[in-house]
From TrEMBL:
It holds the Pfam family Sod_Cu. PROSITE patterns: SOD_CU_ZN_2. Belongs to the Cu-Zn superoxide dismutase family. Gene3D superfamilies: Superoxide dismutase, copper/zinc binding domain (2.60.40.200). Its EC number is 1.15.1.1. Its cofactor is Zn(2+); Cu cation. This is Superoxide dismutase [Cu-Zn]. It catalyses: 2 superoxide + 2 H(+) = H2O2 + O2. It is an enzyme of class 1 (oxidoreductase). It comes from Nonomuraea phyllanthi. The keyword Zinc applies. InterPro entries: SOD-like_Cu/Zn_dom_sf (IPR036423), SOD_Cu/Zn_/chaperone (IPR024134), SOD_Cu/Zn_BS (IPR018152), SOD_Cu_Zn_dom (IPR001424). One of its GO terms (molecular function) is copper ion binding. Binds 1 zinc ion per subunit.
Length: 200
C-alpha cells in the first residue's frame, strides 16, 4: 500500500547501492554524528545548491550522501575530483566549463573512466529540482581525499554514460567503442556545481 507520493529507486551498481529520490532539501541530509567529511556544493553563481557527507561504512568502505536543490531535472554526472578548489572563474580552455580548478577525476592510479577512484553513479534530480543519493564504495576512504591538494565533489550538466559505448558506435576516428572524452568523464558535459570536501 502506498503511504506517500515520494518515489524511491534502488539501483545496484559496481560501486555499491544507490538510493535516488525526490525530496525537500531540508529532509536530505539530517545531522549525522559519524560524518568524517562534508562539502557545501555551490553553483557557478556562488549559490548553495546542496551538501555532501562522507561516513565510514565499515570494512574499508565509505558512505557518501548527497542532497541537492535548484538543479535541472534529469541525471547528472557526479564525481570526486582531484583538487579541493572550486573556483567558478577557472574555466576549461576547450569548453569554457567553470570549476576547471577542481582538476580531473580523483584517482589512486591510472585508471580510465569509469574506473577512476572518484567515479560515482549519476545523480537523479526530480521535476522539482531536488534529489538525493546515497552511495557505498570501497574505492576510497575519507583520509585519502585529504592529500596535498585536497579534493572536491563536482556535479555535471549531463548524465554520465560510464564509458559504456557499445562497439556498434564509432568515435571520431572511426574506431569502435568510447572516444577520449568518454574515457575521461563519460560525456557528462559542463561542470555546474562544485563543493570542496573538508574534514568534519
Amino acid at each position: 500500500m502506498l503511504r506517500n507520493t515520494r518515489l524511491t529507486v534502488v539501483v545496484v551498481l559496481g560501486v555499491g547501492v544507490v538510493m535516488l529520490s525526490a525530496a525537500g532539501l531540508g529532509e536530505m541530509l539530517p545531522g549525522r554524528d559519524g560524518a568524517l567529511a562534508s562539502a557545501v556544493i555551490k553553483n557557478a553563481d556562488g549559490q548553495a545548491v546542496g551538501s555532501l557527507q562522507l561516513e565510514d561504512a565499515g570494512n574499508g568502505k565509505s558512505k557518501i550522501t548527497v542532497g541537492v536543490t535548484n538543479l535541472p531535472v534529469g541525471y547528472h554526472g557526479f564525481h570526486v575530483h582531484a583538487k579541493g578548489v572550486c573556483d567558478p572563474h577557472s574555466t576549461d580552455p576547450a569548453t569554457g566549463s567553470p570549476f576547471f580548478s577542481a582538476g580531473g577525476h580523483f584517482d589512486l592510479g591510472s585508471h580510465p573512466h569509469d574506473h577512476h577512484t572518484g567515479d560515482l553513479p549519476s545523480l537523479l534530480v526530480g521535476a522539482d529540482g531536488t534529489g538525493t543519493a546515497s552511495v557505498v564504495t570501497d574505492r576510497f576512504r575519507a583520509s585519502q581525499l585529504f592529500d596535498g591538494d585536497g579534493s572536491a565533489v563536482v556535479i555535471h550538466a549531463l548524465a554520465d554514460n560510464h564509458a559504456n559505448i557499445p562497439d556498434r558506435y564509432r568515435n571520431a576516428e572511426g574506431a569502435a567503442g568510447p572516444d577520449a572524452e568518454t574515457l575521461t568523464a563519460g560525456d557528462s558535459g559542463r561542470r555546474i556545481a562544485c563543493g570542496v570536501i573538508s574534514g568534519s
